[in-house]
Amino acid sequence: QVQLVESGGGLVQAGGSLRLSCAASGRAFSRSVMAWFRQPPGKEREFVSAISLTGAITYYADSVKGRFSISRDNAKNTVYLQMNSLKLEDTAVYYCAADQKRTIPDPLGRNEYDYWGQGTQVTVSS
User: Fold this and answer.
1) H/E element holding 57?
2) Going by C-beta distance under 8 Å and a sequence separation of 6 or more, which residues neighbour residue 35?
3) What percent of the chain has pLDDT over 90?
4) Is residue 49 within 8 Å of 20, Cβ to Cβ?
């Protein structure tokens, strides 16, 4: 099993930056495809980004491409989401997720992610 704990959320002005972290327990982190999803207020959860086991393959939703960057440190069992040029519409609860069944991420986030964190709130103000 994998337990995921997100951190790094908060309140930031539009145009600012935040870095989210997701710390994973257990030895299986390096064998997990990792992803970030978000759920804006009143909306369904949506895919943000995903990264392969080694970090060689990354995918992003069109809405964040060029502004967000996903990375991972397998020695620290941690995946990161660097968010730059934040917009009001980036306001959401951000979740990290792990898929231990596949070795590559789906470009649209359609992996079967069976482990989820509790989420961290990101609020972008004008």
Assistant:
1) none
2) 47, 48, 49, 50, 51, 96, 97, 98, 99, 105, 109, 111, 113
3) 94
4) no
